[in-house]
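Lab notebook, bench 4. Continuing the backlog of folding jobs that were queued last week. Each job is logged with the same field layout so the records can be merged later without manual cleanup. Today's entry covers Zinc-ribbon domain-containing protein, a 352-residue chain. Filled in by technician R.K.

JOB TYPE: sequence-to-structure
TARGET: Zinc-ribbon domain-containing protein
LENGTH: 352
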Amino acid sequence: MRIFRCDHCGNALFFENVRCLRCSSELAFLPDRMALCAIEPAEVAGTWRRKGGADPGRWRPCEHTRTRACNFGVAADDPNPLCVSCRQTRRLPDLSIPDNRRRWFRIEVAKRRLFFTLARLGLVDTRPAGGESTGPRFHFLANLPHEPVLTGHSDGVITLNVAEADDDERVRRRLALHEPYRTLLGHLRHESGHFYWEQLIDQAGRHEDFRRAFGDERADYAAALDRHYTHGPPAGWQERHVSAYATSHPWEDWAETWAHYLHLVDLMETASSFQTQLALPGFETEQVPDPFAGAPLDFDSLLRHWLPLTVLVNSLTRSLGQEDAYPFAPSPAALDKLHFVHDLIHAQAAPR
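JOB STATUS: finished
OUTPUT FIELD FOLLOWS
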């Protein structure tokens, strides 16, 4: 996620900001502009315009802005009361329970970050016609007596157990499942991979290409997961897979690889917005490029910057006494799968 600048005073802004700390301008993220903008009241009550008056667009707040659950704007002529991110969420837990409201807020923050990256890749529409939505739909649900909620994807719907928004519960599950990495954003990126497998592989008839890269997805899925959780990953799994969980089934290998590709482009965009230069031993000193600026970068160019960037990120977190932020070391075979995802995305949609 890149850093933004207040278009009124130039102050640095972050994606979730709602007010500029320098000039006190109200802020909103405008998806159809893909920008966090300083706003002011427009001529029609309840609508906004960008400060300065050069942009003819008009917007209004997402309905969830009232509860501070969202900072996205909605085009004034859009019939949907919700922004393009919030309208993707179709089911929520009981929000009269304070903990569920807090969990929902945290999950929506992660989902808006996912939306941003998918929009930058041209995989969701920032202003769909008729107030509809594109991309996956979401159910955020809480456990009920005798009704546990399992995180997963089915028929275009991503379900997330809201307990994952609690740090202690997420860490407990990470340790119990022997996972080196488990975050809300990571969950959503992984599950979005299942959604886009249906869109980009299944519906497009690319099964043979997929099977050459990831294996035969027709293998019994339930049996594969049972085998994984009973016996763990096979020996030497690091030689072909980006994570241990990716070994469980070709669908999970794809979803894990997809999530890592989103990690890659988002991390590079962040580093580029800070004008980061890498000068690591064995690498030429170069400024990290923005993967979304101009013509799409070829995969080898992305890789040349991304691998040393992960070394930098992990070194910074270790300096703070934290575990590695990116606890993975993709093998050449795993990188080939990332290359497959890269080529497929850029064959389908132009970055926005």
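OBSERVATION: The CA atoms of residues 89 and 138 lie 5 Å apart.
SIGNED: R.K.
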